[in-house]
Amino acid sequence: xxxxxxxxxxxxxxxxxxxxxxxxxxxxxxxxxxxxxxxxxxxxxxxxxxxxxxxxxxxxxxxxxxxxxxxxxxxxxxxxxxxxxxxxxxxxxxxxxxxxxxxxxxxxxxxxxxxxxxxxxxxxxxxxxxxxxxxxxxxxxxxxxxxxxxxxxxxxxxxxxxxxxxxxxxxxxxxxxxxxxxxxxxxxxxxxxxxxxxxxx
Length: 201
Known about the structure:
By secondary structure, the protein is of the alpha/beta class. About 45% of the residues lie in helices and about 15% in strands.
């Protein structure tokens, strides 16, 4: 990289912690904070889409407990960056598995940089690290497609852009290898994402 540093985006509710991490990374030079977001609102998602970050460091407490398992897939809708969890509170291992890595709030600066570097390396070595499993949002979109909903109807239903719906559908086709609506409907039925009573056969 010509700049000699990797770009990092911080997503965390505490500005004090964010500024502290920014200062630590600035001193060590390998990573540079390009932006700080305080939440995962629609405004933040729009900014996330326009930021070319190499690594996203996020505090999972931004999401309520029930939706913490989907934080990683939600970010993947807008960015291909490595996503690293900042453990500001105790987290169970199942929640941490979705991330490319994790750093602790009390890790020393050198350890933080090392963990960020390792997370980025593992992401670059396996860009399809999500494999062929559909994300939670992709499953939602697939169900809508199986029900015969149009792209605009899906976009309105989830309050997202038509472009985002099309991107999801492309990802679904790539991951499943199925290009037709009929084929995707069968896939949804076979994987128990939908029941036959909710679609027009």
